[in-house]
Amino acid sequence: MRKLSSLLLATLLACVAGHAAAQGVLRIGLVEDPDTLDPTLNRLATGRQPMTALCDKLFDVKADDLSLVPQLATGYEVAKDGKSVTIRLRPGVKFQDGETFDANALAYNVKRHMTLPGSLRRTELSMVDHVDVVDPSSVRFVLNAPQANLLLYSLAERAGMMVAPDAAQKLGDRFGSQPVCAGEYRFVERVPQGRIVVEKFAGYWDAAHTAGDPDRIEYLPIGDSTVRLSSLRSGQIQIAERLTPTDLPQLANDPRVKVVSAPDLGYHYIRYNSGNGPRAAIFHDVRVRHAVDLAIDRRVLVKALFNDQYQPGNQFVGPTSRYYDPAHPVPARDVAASRQLLQQAGVAHLTFTLLVPPERERQEAAQMVQAMLAEAGITMKIETQDDAVMLQNARRGNFDAIFNFWSGRPHPDGNVYAQYSCNGPTNDSKFCDPAIDKLMVAAREATTDDERQRLYREVNGMLAQAYPSSVLWHRRTFTGVSAKLTGFVPHPDSTIRVKGLHLQP
């Protein structure tokens, strides 16, 4: 069935490729079907791809040094005590339904992020007490703690994406299927498991600098990497996201394609259910989690599967980050110690199920981990689920362990707080250590880089002893790009910026 679906998709792409190129249509191959296109509720990294075209943010970050760049905002001022931030807004901005973007619209968006049921942005804006409308073009964020640096970087992510208030109120829980924002492109249609289509918005605030950008973009979920690569090489798509190192040799001598890369801010990890519902019994004991971790050889994984293009990892930042805790380096595999820990925990034979999405990288890694654990007397079953389904089951506690991927954030808080704080919105295992929470809050309020480094290293060290998850590697982001496409800049957050892309006929 999967082969048939791939064949049908390839045939469809071939039929429309010539027409698409003639009409200035950019086609982007995604590794999976995105979840909701509501910035408040979106969770999957693939969802950020179309949302980046649809929804401008208050700020963005530079690809090279991750410094802030104004987008819908023009600047900001931080109070001396660090407990308020005044942001100046860009004049003349319209949402795609014609509504004006102003201070009241921003205040509405912040309230929506903080109060909408199921919001994944609430934790990112937890430092905000309220927003004051100073005048139509400026607002003041009043903070309940001096966390101005964290706030600004949160506003350069999904929390800074602005949606049209009228449309959001009218559509309610259907907004994610018909998003209205203030980006360069407006939403046209979505065919589930088929495509997401956006087209140039004539009233875009920066239209003068985007005249040469594609008129239309089609985002296509192509989970089969073979089909995705062949579609890129034949010109049926012009961008293929998240290539793996094993894809690279196929493209090395193809003049029709170029591969660009950037170091990634995120990490791949196995999360253990240690406290979410009845299925948490398997991994409630830290010795059991530690035993599984010890049976995995991260270096062998990275060498065998990724040709050493990725970095073995064990923390929420990579070994090259200033926040990495050198006191707890990537551990060596120790099967004997793994067996001993299980004995101490009174587990005669450990058996559990790992939920894995159909993505090739994690599928192959899961099979290798399965073999490694078997050598330690651990039986790991693999159950494949679509990413959105897997994360839904994780939220409900309907899992033993999941093989997850976090796309990474410029501020280290974005890599740890939501995942491991007691009430974090993506803390699916319900892992909770008040001492770690206290350190993370202190790190949020740190006013110097040195203080922030010391605190995050302490957090890293405590997580390295608690094993709420097993971080396995930090990757590079490899993106396949047609030679006919110019202006593409890879970003460490793996999100494709479409502004400035030019497609030759």
UniProtKB/TrEMBL annotation:
GO cellular component: ATP-binding cassette (ABC) transporter complex; outer membrane-bounded periplasmic space
Alphabetic keyword roster: Signal
N-terminal signal peptide: 1-22
Gene3D superfamilies referenced in this protein's UniProt entry, alphabetically: Dipeptide-binding Protein, Domain 1, Dipeptide-binding Protein, Domain 3, Periplasmic binding protein-like II
Superkingdom of the source species: Bacteria
Gene Ontology process terms (BP): peptide transport
InterPro entries with a match to the protein in the record: Peptide/Ni-bd, SBP_5, SBP_5_dom
Stretches assigned to the Solute-binding protein family domain: 68-424
One Pfam family from the record: SBP_bac_5
Alphabetized GO MF terms: peptide transmembrane transporter activity
Similarity comment: Belongs to the bacterial solute-binding protein 5 family.
PANTHER family found in the cross-reference section: D,D-DIPEPTIDE-BINDING PERIPLASMIC PROTEIN DDPA-RELATED (PTHR30290:SF38), PERIPLASMIC BINDING COMPONENT OF ABC TRANSPORTER (PTHR30290)
Protein name: Peptide/nickel transport system substrate-binding protein
